[in-house]
Amino acid sequence: MHLQSIGAAETVTGSGHFLHLGGMELLIDCGLFQGEDTLEARNREAFPFDPSRLDAVLLTHAHLDHVGRLPLLYKRGFRGPIYCTQPTAALTETVLLDSARIQVESYSREVRWARRSGDEKSVEEPLYDEEDVHNTLALLRPQLVFGETLQVGKVRVRAERAGHILGSAFLVLDGPEGRVVFSGDLGNRESGLQQDFTLPPDADAVLIETTYGDRTHRPLAQTVQEFAQVLSQSVRLGGKILIPSFAIERTQVILYTLKHLMESGQVPRIPIFLDSPMAARATNEYFEYGDELRPEVREILRSGEDPFRPSTLHVVTTSQESQRLNRYDGAAIILAGNGMMTGGRIQHHLKHQLWKPTTSLVIVSYQSPSSLGGRIVEGADKVRIMGEEIAVRAKVHTIGGFSAHADQDDLLAWVQATGNAKIWLVHGEVNVMETFLGVLEGQGRTADIMPKEGSVDLQSTHFPGGRPPGLTVNPPREGRAEAGE
Ligand SMILES: [Zn+2]
């Protein structure tokens, strides 16, 4: 049972784990690195294996940082099956087509700029295009069903509910050498839409994500109440209420919450514009696979209603319609991507609205400090948006509790069920993993941080060659409230 990480070791993007089990070569997830340029450059690196020899890929869920390098795998020779749940297959199509579009668009923009300086040869080709995505999608095998086992060569694969986004699974792999569990991303048990994760079985080794391994989320009811108060105040200002939102899960949670708050009279029924074609497509998938969601959501569906469609919702499709919103008078909610305001239609709305004191910017997602959203949250009085300097006069509100990720209590509850499995920490910042490692070791568990390079024996109780330098273990910190993604 040897494993080599191809991403999300000591970082939170680019998830991918190359596993030898039962004489097979398997890859669990194949995500895109996102963020700083140096991190994104890693997308162009060769895989540490020959993609044409890989037996199969298994997906935990459809977020870009778990599926975004699949077309590269195809381009480099992989032609095997990609196993996933049905909703994951549907969302993967939406996510990869959007990713290809963004890459091709930013490539042509960069070429245009570079041509003016006579330097167009320096621009790197897009990672992949729409055709590569269609070829990749043809390899998807949506045969994973929660609680059922699929035989892949000598390995038995079982998908179980992870409760993170629609279709998200954790995977239990049984091979002749033993059992290993991959958590994928685990959900927040205070999620508005997803059913709680199920608990994993005893295992020999377990890989667990640690995004929020150092903190505790606030209860959802408090978050919803705060959201209602902020919206009611904002409506009184009479301007636009901008809600930057990620297309998958966050947008649907916000639409579901808005419908509830407006129908129960806690928030006035003002127009809501959903200005993100990708979020609109993802919302259709949530409706389609509504049976997967929490009982109270299924109840609404059964009564013939759409839980994601408040009565005042307008879905904006074309960019002309989006631009017309600049001239719309009166209070209205605009939901647009992307969540960190680093691109997408939200930037146009910010450019036109952020300087007005009647505007409200309601932040419901994690903002990385270097992003545009991060600078606004930190109190910048001016920001550059699409080459223009814009004053921040809008009221800025941050609502912290809509997280789709497990917090420390959730992670502990889940991992405790794995018996004496050796625990490998992935998908977290190093300081967060160190905190979580301290908590696990305090409970007598054997745990280590998955190294960025080289292959590890998953059952070894000690890091080969000792823990990497710099990874000292700190005593656990007080659980910090707040949450993001
Ligand atoms: Zn995720």
TrEMBL record:
GO terms for molecular function: hydrolase activity; RNA endonuclease activity. SUPFAM superfamilies: Metallo-hydrolase/oxidoreductase (SSF56281). Residues 456-485 are annotated as: Disordered. Residues 251-376 form the Beta-Casp domain. It holds the Pfam family RMMBL. The keyword Signal does not apply. Residues 13-235 form the Metallo-beta-lactamase domain. Keywords: Hydrolase. It comes from the Bacteria. CDD domains: TTHA0252-CPSF-like_MBL-fold. InterPro entries: Beta_Casp (IPR022712), MBL (IPR050698), Metallo-B-lactamas (IPR001279), RibonucZ/Hydroxyglut_hydro (IPR036866), RMMBL (IPR011108). This is Cleavage protein.
